[in-house]
Amino acid sequence: MPKFSTLTLGEKLMYVRKSKGLSQENVAHALKLDITLIGRIERGQRECDEETLAAYKKFLEIENAPLLAPELTLYQDRLWIWNDLLNANRIHDAKQMQAVLSCIQGLPYENDLNMLFLMLETKLLYKESDFAGAKDRLNKVETTLDDSCSGVKHLFYRNKGFLYIFTSADRENAIKYFLLALDYESAHLKADVGLLASIGSLLFDQSRYYHALFMLKQAKAQYNDDGVNALGPILDLNLSFCYIYIGEYSKAKKVLEATLKRAMVINDNLTIGVSLYCLGNISRRTGDAANALKLCNQALTHLEQCTSADKVGYHLFCLTHKIDALIQLKDFAQATTVINHGLELAAGQNELHAINFECRKHIMSIKDSSSASYLENTAIPYFAKTNPAAAIEICDILEEHYNKKNSKMKALTMAAISRDLYKTMFICPNDDKHSPL
Q1: pLDDT, tens digit, for every residue of 11-29?
Q2: 3-class secondary structure, 247
Q3: Phi and psi of 161, rounded to 5°?
Q4: With pLDDT > 90 as the criterion, what percentage of the chain qualifies?
Q5: Distance (Å, rounded) from C-alpha 274 to C-alpha 291?
Q6: Same fold, 9-59 and 69-190
Q7: Alpha-carbon distance 194 to 83, whole Å?
Q8: Helix runs in 60-110, H state only
Q9: Burial track 250-285 (b if 16+ CB lie within 10 A, e otherwise)
Q10: Given this model, what pLDDT does residue 430 score?
Q11: Which fold has domain 9-59?
Q12: Global model pTM greater than 0.85
């Protein structure tokens, strides 16, 4: 809870007056009052009537600033409303609230309220991609962070984590600051579902699936579908991704089918497309490559109708799943065609997808020593850092390949690399407050 200043009304007026370089004589002249009366008001020796207070505030240019206890409580409530508007992506309404609440900047003695304003303003700047402005506000708040309330600390660490994501894609530091933010989550802030979902997504990107699932389940339990926030489908899809990678196919399928049904009602082509190719992924993993191919083709039809900026990445992932189904069906000619198409789309834009497609090409020609070498010396080291699950799959393929060639030492090496990667991925978190680490 923010700590309000313990200054008296008179002391507050004196503080603002001095911060503006004004004298009591300046105030007395403007308000047409005796200077001794101004002095007595500021020292608390004389009550300030409403008319005088209004004139005093107008002269100091703080007409709308909260000085009295009821005004401060109302201001604090409006801060939380502003936070809710930002979380719901209601940017127009959030900007209007920003204009109303900016009056607090005229009261420098209200440290917590000023710091909360700056941190919520930072959230708005992120939505406008003004990362320099966001960093400037974070630097200002950091100087007084130790003396600030839990709400300020929560928002500071949350914003600091997102700065690492937006400016350097530093997942480790982002997760570190996000977890600190959860430690300081204020009772006056609604459960930060977006933060939990972001931690889950980052952990998933690191192939730490049980850890990701732990956070995403918390987010799902606290999520309130208000019809405005679009987080629901993202949460469901991320949950299904985790279930797939830990082999809980029935749970993944249940989530995906429910998500697909809701998406089809509102014609959300992106969610429909992703849900379909994930269902295809499950079909392939459970031995039905023909159904997987059918679902991937349906998914591509919906993804091609999307206008979302995210569609390119999902389109490339869908092509990867389609290739895997074709390889399983031993339709290598068609798989090669799709690989070449994928490489054209990913060229110069996305290294991850480009290597994904290259890997499929080399998997089909694994008997060629140069292909095995590419998978072992290029693909595995790359995916070990970016997607350990993919590295494990390649290790398994190479282990089988080397066993067939009777290259036992190389097969054992692949098995050892695979085991080491598993250690970083499949460790269930303790059932504690929130930490998956």
Answers
A1: 999 999 999 999 999 989 9
A2: coil
A3: -60, -45
A4: 66
A5: 16
A6: no
A7: 12
A8: 69-87, 91-101
A9: ebbbebbeebbebbeeeebbbbbbbbbbbbbbbbbb
A10: 46
A11: 434 Repressor (Amino-terminal Domain) (1.10.260)
A12: no
Domain borders along the chain are 9-59, 69-190, 248-341, 365-437
Q: What's 118's DSSP letter?
A: H
Q: Is the dihedral of CA 389, 392, 396, 397 positive or negative?
A: positive
95 burial type by CB count under 10 A (0-12 exposed, 13-18 middle, 19+ buried): middle
d(CA 279, CA 186): 39
Q: What six digits make up the tokens of 369? A: 């020593």
Whole-angstrom distance, CA of residue 161 vs CA of residue 176: 7
How far is the C-alpha of 332 from the C-alpha of 336, rounded, in Å?
6
Nearest CA to 201 out of 228, 157, 236 is that of 236
Amino acid at residue number 2: P
Sign of CA dihedral 200, 201, 202, 203: positive
Question: DSSP string covering 309-362, please?
Answer: TTHHHHHHHHHHHHHHHHHHTT-HHHHHHHHHHHHHHHTTT-HHHHHHHHHHHH
Q: What is the pLDDT of residue 310?
A: 73
Digit-coded pLDDT (tens) for 153-166: 999 999 999 999 99
C-alpha dihedral (278, 281, 283, 289), degrees to nearest 10: 140
Q: How far apart are CA 251 and CA 379, in angstroms?
A: 30
Per this entry, what is the length of the chain?
A: 437
Domain 69-190 = CATH 3.30.1130.10: no
What CA–CA distance (Å, rounded) separates 262 from 298? 17
Q: Which helix (DSSP H) or strand (DSSP E) does residue 243 occupy?
A: helix 231-245
What is the residue-averaged pLDDT of the chain? 89
Radius of gyration of the chain (CA): 29
Q: What is the DSSP string of 389-417?
A: HHHHHHHHHHHHHHHHTT-HHHHHHHHHH
Which two structure tokens, joined as six digits, stand for 283?
């079909």
